[in-house]
Each structure stands twice: as C-alpha cells, then as structure tokens.
Amino acid sequence: MGTSGEEWEKKLPHMGVASCPAIFYLAKYSYGLAIYMFIGEYHYTLDDKGRLSVPIGYRTALSDGAVVTRGLDHTLFLYPKEEWRSLAAKIAALPLSQADTRAFARLMLAGAMEVSMDKSGRITIPEYLRTYATLSKRVVVSGLYDRLEIWDEQAWQAYVEKTEAQGNEIAERLDPLSI
Known about the structure:
Helix content is 38%, strand content 22%. The chain is of the alpha+beta class. It folds into two domains: 1-35, no CATH class; 37-151, Chemotaxis protein chec, CATH 3.40.1550.20. A hairpin with a 2-residue loop joins strand 7 and strand 8 (148-152).
C-alpha cells in the first residue's frame, strides 16, 4: 500500500480505526509509514542569502517539500507540504463574508511560499518573510508538533522569558482543557 492519506482513509474504516485521529496515526505508524512530530529548540545562523539549516532530524519530514509563511507573533511557520495542504483547505473553507477570515487568509495564504532543501539541508527564506519576522543573523527554529516556527533569536528569548514568568497563570487558564 502507498503512503497517501487517501489510500489509508479507504483502508482504515475496515480496520475500525478511521474515526479516531490518534489511532489513525498509530495505524499508519504500525504499517511502516513515517510519522513526524516537531519538538525542540535549535539555534542557527541565517546566511547572507537567507538560507537556513533545517534541523537534521526533521529533514526527512520536509523532504517532499515544505511551505513557509507568515506566522503569529511575527514569526514564520514552516509546514511539511501535506500538513500545509490540510491547513490551507481549512482556511479556505472559512466564511469569506467575515472580515477576520479574509484577514487571516491573507496573512497565512498570501504570505506563503513553497521551499525545498538544498543538498546541505538548507531552505531559502524569501526576503519579504525575513522582513516580516525581523530575522537577524541569529535565529531559533522551534518545534511545535505539526510545524516549525522560525524566530529572531532576541525575539524568541524575550518571548520565552515573558512566557516562563507567566507559566503558572497560563497553566491555570488552560486547566479547563485538562492539560
């Protein structure tokens, strides 16, 4: 069986697991397909041409292509192409009559650019995205489960310090989510 989601979606209902995404991914893993989960914090130098090394452990997950776009908090989001297609479809399905929907779609979709890795495992970040995220030479690539975020190193450090100082309050606000 191939690795496309469509093939698995046809097969898994007969296995009794298609209704549960966690089991769906477990079933995919059980049948030898690669599953990725982006975690961790990596510090890199952005070269003069805007090239950035992708963490070695994530290169396989991005080997079929990736999309970099404007993220929230003036960061960049980097998605594997398949994950991006899923997110883009969800954004496109939002009601066009809502001003916030149009604004968010413009932020995410119009700002997006397909990227591929060179032989050294680097991607080139377009200048308009480097400007949006105010990226300097030193950047941080942070793994957030289904995406990587690209931050200017100083902005990341300020964000981490602020978030760590508020960690208990944030956890209490999230308590209803049973985290």
